[in-house]
Amino acid sequence: MDIHIGKRIEEIAKKKRLTMQEIKDALGTGNRSPTYTYKKKSLPVDTLWRISEKMNHNFFADLHPVTVDETLADREELEKRYRQEKKLELAIRVEFPVSLVKDFSTFLMHANALGLKMGFKVGEAPAK
């Protein structure tokens, strides 16, 4: 996944409705405009860490979402369980404003990856 971190910082600042002064404080730009930071494709780790803390957002998770790193043995064990054990299904409802649809797709990607890592199959409900 190729993320332009400056644009992501700008998106989060807008989403959180931060004032210009709050953004400047978080970015450590003093009285300068945050535009320079918004144009940066990448930032040093210490800078991004500070911004993450000030904006109360984990930009590192945006850069490296949860991934599945299972071994073949783990996958075989999981498939064995799915063949041998009774399975339960759960349908959930998720409500969110339309403006957060991009964030929701990221949420689903993370939920699916984490679910797979823990042995859950996450997907669409079967058609009735």
TrEMBL record:
Protein name, entry field: Uncharacterized protein
Species this protein is from: Hufsiella ginkgonis
Superkingdom classification of source: Bacteria
